[in-house]
Design brief:
Elements lengths: L2 H25 L1 H17 L3
Length: about 50
Amino acid sequence: MTRRQKNAAAWALVALAAVCLILGVIRGENTVVWRKAVNLCMECIGLG
């Protein structure tokens, strides 16, 4: 693979990750992740 091909592949993966993030936010999955993070801190670690 040439350097140009590697660079193109890397940018394609970045674009795919951005699309997945946007779809997750549209579906409301960010609130689920936030709720799980808060529960982890409150119950397991004991912060709060």
